Each structure stands twice: as structure tokens, then as C-alpha cells.
């Protein structure tokens, strides 16, 4: 028995993208494009006439932003799946989108293959994430590794960044506080700094540069 296609609504104020989306869905048997709207407000106005299964929404929109619009859309239908679309993939924006209730996050440029991969992921697994966004999220949660520091020094830096004291670090690493102090002095020497705050700030800058050129 043939299943009915899932109904999709697109929210994007870029008129150039409207024709593209229409082309993407033209011959699709799994998904039906119900409509394309320029704003959250316009979408809400027509929502009762068009009840979607999935909404594709640009993050940056006139009036109510796509991310803030998630709450408004869920008031209409708590079960609707919402995929955010944006040129930006920074961690804070992605985190805000999912915190507000997004089911997926797709970065531009959009191709038919990437779009349908996201739709299929939401359909099958309930969530979708662009590869580049997933990669950034993984790197954000991975522990920082600084090449100029030894393995033990990296461990100590990780604890220092969490606000741990010399004594608590010593207990966690099963060493004496004097040993921890010895390693910290070596860290200061390698970084050419004189305090914990200077060391953490310098490592933050190093980490930013590593991500920038990764």
C-alpha cells in the first residue's frame, strides 16, 4: 500500500530560493511542498489551511526570527518537526536552536541531496544535523589537546579550566600538591605567563586559532 507523502512548509524570505525549493520537491513522491512563506507571521496566518508534518525555516527572518518562531509554530502543532536552515554554524546558535525545540539544523548552501537527507533523518530518527555542524559540536565537547604541553600538563590544564584547586587536582591524579605545582610552573614557563588567569587566557587564544585553521 502506497503511503501518503509527508507535507512540508518552507519559510525563507530569499525569493531566489523559492524556485529552488519548488524544483527540489517537483518530482518527490515522499514529500509534498505545501507552500513557501517569507516570515513566521505569514506562516502562522495560513497555518490552519496548511498543516505540515515538517517545517524548513531559515534562522534569519524579518520580524520574528526562525529560532524564536519555533515556539509560535509549536503552539499550532506540538508534534510538527522543525529543521532550521542557516549560513551560520557556530555552536551558540545551534545550541539555541535545539534548546528552543528544533529537530534539525542544516547549513547552506542547500542541495537537493542534502535537503532530502535531512528530511529523511527527521522522518526516520526524529533529528537531523549537517555534517559540518556535527563536526563542530564534536570538537567542542572533545577535550582540548595542546601540542606544546605534555599529557600530564594537558590533564592539569583541563582541571584548572574547571576551577579545581592544586589539592583537588593532586587527589584526582594521585600525586602530591608539590608535583602539581611543579607541572604548573612548567606550563607557565612554556606559555611565557606568570599566573593561572594568564595561562588560561593564552590557551583560550591558542584553541581559537587551532579551530580557525583546522
- Oligomeric state of shown chains: single chain
In percent, how much strand structure appears in the residues?
A: 5-15%
- In order across it, which strands form the biggest sheet? 2-1-3-4-5-6
User: Can you count the helices?
Assistant: 10
Radius of gyration: 24 Å
How does the major sheet shape up?
A: 6 strands, parallel
What report would you give on this structure?
- The protein has helices at 15-25, 40-45, 66-76, 91-99, 112-125, 131-141, 151-161, 166-173, 177-191, 196-212; strands at 6-11, 31-37, 54-58, 81-86, 104-107, 128-129.
- The model has no long low-confidence stretch (mean pLDDT 87).
- It is of the alpha/beta class.
- It is built from 10 helices and 6 strands.
- Strands 2-1-3-4-5-6 form a 6-stranded parallel β-sheet, sandwiched between helices.
- The chain is elongated, with a radius of gyration of 24 Å.
- Helix 7 (151-161) packs across helix 9 (177-191).
Which short descriptors sum up this protein?
single chain; 14% strand; 10 helices; alpha/beta; 53% helix; 214 residues
Quickly describe the structure.
It contains ten helices and six strands. It is α/β, with parallel strands linked by helices and 214 residues long.
Question: Layout of SSEs?
Answer:
Elements: E1 6-11, H1 15-25, E2 31-37, H2 40-45, E3 54-58, H3 66-76, E4 81-86, H4 91-99, E5 104-107, H5 112-125, E6 128-129, H6 131-141, H7 151-161, H8 166-173, H9 177-191, H10 196-212
Parallel strand pairs: 1-2, 1-3, 3-4, 4-5, 5-6
Amino acid at each position: 500500500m502506497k503511503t501518503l507523502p509527508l507535507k512540508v512548509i518552507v519559510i525563507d524570505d530569499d525569493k531566489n530560493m523559492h524556485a529552488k525549493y519548488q524544483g527540489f520537491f517537483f518530482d518527490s513522491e515522499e514529500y509534498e511542498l505545501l507552500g513557501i512563506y517569507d516570515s513566521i507571521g505569514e506562516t502562522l496566518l495560513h497555518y490552519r489551511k496548511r498543516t505540515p508534518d515538517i517545517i524548513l525555516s531559515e534562522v534569519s527572518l524579518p520580524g520574528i526570527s526562525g529560532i524564536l518562531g519555533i515556539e509560535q509554530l509549536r503552539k499550532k502543532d506540538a508534534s510538527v518537526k522543525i529543521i532550521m536552515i542557516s549560513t551560520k554554524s557556530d555552536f551558540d546558535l545551534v545550541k539555541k536552536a535545539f534548546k528552543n525545540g528544533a529537530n534539525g539544523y542544516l547549513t547552506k548552501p542547500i542541495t537537493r541531496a542534502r535537503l532530502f537527507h535531512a528530511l529523511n533523518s527527521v522522518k526516520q530518527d526524529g533529528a537531523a544535523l549537517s555534517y559540518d555542524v556535527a563536526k563542530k559540536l564534536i570538537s567542542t565537547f572533545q577535550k582540548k589537546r595542546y601540542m606544546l604541553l605534555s599529557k600530564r600538563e594537558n590533564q592539569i590544564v583541563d582541571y584548572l579550566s574547571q576551577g579545581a584547586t592544586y589539592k583537588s587536582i593532586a587527589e584526582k591524579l594521585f600525586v602530591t600538591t608539590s608535583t602539581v605545582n611543579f607541572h604548573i610552573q612548567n606550563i607557565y614557563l612554556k606559555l611565557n605567563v606568570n599566573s593561572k588567569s594568564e595561562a588560561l587566557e593564552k590557551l583560550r587564544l591558542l584553541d581559537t586559532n587551532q579551530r580557525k585553521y583546522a
